Amino acid sequence: MLLARIDGVIVSTVCHPSMHGCRTVICQPLNERGEADGAPVLAVDSHGAGQHQRVLVSSDGAATRTLVGDPKSPLRNSVIAILDDSS
Amino acid sequence: MRLGHVIGKVTLSRQDPAYLGGRFLLVQPWSAAKYAKPAAPLASNAGLVVYDSLGAGVGSIVGFTEGSEASKPFAGLTPVDAYCAAIIDEVFHQPPQ
User: Do A42 and B35 touch (CB under 8 A)?
Assistant: First the structure.
């Protein structure tokens, strides 16, 4: 799983049907010191993580397909946890 | 899923029968620098060819997925590992200062 920070959202009207009704957030991966590390990835968020909140992003496609309820969904990354603290 | 700019199209003369009816886009993925400054020029590293069934044109921003998930939306087994899942209308990106 990736430790990441929510840096924004994207809006898309023409997309795969499994993405309708899902919030797609821009997740910036973080390194151990909490700084940005690498290119952002997009993930489906069902927990309502706020802006600049730190989250855990999973790249397990099977879990994301179950989350959106579509076995033919091409989505891969999904936000599975919102971090309180990390030391 | 990653963002990328569509910079071209790819036409196949001979193709796998599973590709019938598909369109292929040449996409340049967004680097971290591009997210920081959307007006910055596109990166010059390798682009990739993305299967598209939504009708994205050259110059639009698309969200594409890679890996085995890219072959899920098809009925049968399809040799696709990059699939255009969304045509992006707006990107709201504000990292903390």
Answer: no
Residues of chain A with pLDDT under 70: none
What's the burial of B60, exposed, middle or buried (CB within 10 Å: 0-12/13-18/19+)? Answer: middle
| CATH assignment at residue B17 | 2.40.50.220
pTM: 0.90
Residue A87 counted as domain residue: no
ipTM value, please give it: 0.89
A9 chain-B contacts, CB cut-off 8 A: 92
Spell out which residues of chain B touch residue A2, defining contact as CB-CB under 8 Å. Answer: none
Q: Is A18 helix (H, G, I), strand (E, B) or coil?
A: helix
Specify if B95 maps to a domain. no
| A24–B86 C-beta distance less than 8 A | yes
